[in-house]
Specification:
- With 418 residues, the protein is mainly α.
- 73% of the residues lie in helices and 0% in strands.
- The chain has helices spanning 3-21, 24-34, 39-42, 44-60, 64-67, 69-89, 93-121, 125-151, 167-183, 200-211, 214-243, 249-255, 257-273, 279-297, 318-321, 325-329, 332-341, 349-378, 380-385, 388-404.
- α7 packs antiparallel against α18 (349-378) and α8 packs antiparallel against α17.
- The radius of gyration is 21 Å and the shape is globular.
């Protein structure tokens, strides 16, 4: 099997969905302008995305090998291509909800398949962790690209303009290209096909037994809390820039890209640093610095005087400093995902990936909705100060996970099949 083509295909799939999934912050801002919906109403877009991710992941994760990883990804890319084409044709809030529901359902298939496929194309734990970090950093490159792509179509002189919907034609084209690349790329799934002789009930039973393992419970709670924090910040940063820092709409979206860029850089650097030090100590140091950054950066937003901002050079300091939190929280997600997956045999990678996707999706929805309601009731600064709570929780949970992780190794051969 040509592993470089498979890896390229996985990277492109992730790139497409990175733009779509993380456009929710931009779209939240735009639907408030275009469709006259409140901040709390707009926050449900995160739920349409994440709850469908959770539901579809639950339904397919335990028997993804029956569908086939490649087949599942092809279906996902086809669905999201159609959804993107519909957006500019029928501009309405319900269409936006439909898009994120379709994106969420498709990403569930993509992420479970991608996470499980990594185990088929990597030779050992180090290679697994390396490619996982690179994949997640490339995901953030997609997020970064999305901010500039959407801002290029925003009309600052007419907030009610729907010209930004044109971007979905481009996204449909990228998804179509990803479909064709995957269609022409061979994926050897023979090493996990022997599991398909089990019944569907057995498949669900295996996933539930895995889910109630104490170390897995601590892990999925860690993933839930991390995504709650990350998505709460990422989804509402464009609105924070616009309403609290008084930036123009297009600049608000562009400057939110600092978070994506710092996160991508953080994951790339983590891939290098993790070769030398323990993931636990790296993440602990990063969380402490992230907490200090929140306390340092947010008070700077109070000094914004509402003067006209023409571009990046005249933007307030807070618009640059706070998004740098991404540099320090970035290594957490790929590091803990790799730690749990590389400790399990290949046959459990599908169900485990499903659990990761389910709890990540629930965390994303919870984070965005909580942030949206606090934002509306108490203001953007208070909403972002709340990120200190998950930071403290993560310090506790990661310590527990580190202590419990060795318990799964004796019963679960690492990277079985290699």
């Amino acid at each position: 099997m040509s592993h470089w083509r498979v890896k390229l295909s996985l990277l492109l799939n992730y790139f497409v969905f990175a733009i779509l999934l993380n456009s929710v912050g931009t779209v939240i801002l735009q639907v408030q302008n275009n469709y006259s919906v409140s901040a709390s109403s707009a926050s449900v877009l995160e739920a349409f995305k994440d709850l469908t991710i959770a539901v579809v992941s639950f339904l397919v994760a335990s028997y993804i090998t029956r569908i086939g990883y490649k087949q599942a990804m092809l279906v996902a890319l086809a669905v999201v291509t159609c959804a993107c084409l519909l957006m500019p044709q029928v501009p309405a809030f319900w269409t936006t909800k439909l898009l994120f529901a379709a994106t969420g359902a498709s990403f569930a298939l993509i992420k479970v398949s991608v996470f499980a496929t990594i185990g088929l194309i990597t030779e050992d734990r180090n290679a697994h962790a390396s490619f996982m970090n690179f994949l997640e950093s490339f995901f953030m490159v997609g997020v970064l690209s999305g901010y500039f792509l959407f801002s290029a179509f925003v009309d600052d002189t007419n907030p009610q303009s729907t010209a930004w919907l044109t971007v979905y034609y481009m996204l449909a084209a990228i998804a179509g290209l990803a479909f064709l690349l995957l269609l022409s790329t061979p994926v050897d799934e023979s090493s996990v096909q022997h599991e398909t002789d089990k019944s569907l009930i057995d498949d669900f039973g295996d996933m539930f037994r895995l889910a109630v393992t104490p170390v897995v419970l601590v892990f999925v709670l860690s993933a839930f809390v991390y995504v709650l924090m990350e998505q709460g910040i990422m989804s509402w940063l464009p609105t924070f820039n616009s309403q609290i820092l008084k930036l123009p709409t297009s600049l608000s979206i562009q400057m939110a890209s600092i978070l994506a860029a710092s996160t991508a850089l953080g994951r790339f650097l983590a891939g290098l640093v993790l070769r030398r030090i323990s993931w636990y100590w790296l993440l602990t140091i990063c969380l402490v610095i992230a907490g200090c950054l929140v306390i340092l950066a947010l008070p700077l937003a109070t000094s914004v005087d509402g003067r006209s901002v023409a571009g990046w050079s005249t933007a307030p300091v807070a618009a640059f400093i706070f998004p740098m939190i991404g540099l320090f929280i970035a290594p957490i997600y790929p590091a803990i995902n790799s730690a749990i997956l590389s400790s399990l045999p290949l046959r459990q990678h599908g169900p485990m990936a499903g659990l990761i996707v389910i709890f990540s999706a629930l965390g994303g929805t919870t984070g965005s909705i909580i942030t949206g309601h606090v934002f509306e009731a108490y203001g953007g600064q208070t909403a972002f100060y709340f990120s200190l709570v998950p930071i403290v929780l993560l310090l506790v949970l990661l310590t527990l996970f580190k202590r419990m992780q060795p318990a799964i190794r004796p019963a679960s051969p690492t990277m079985e099949g290699h």
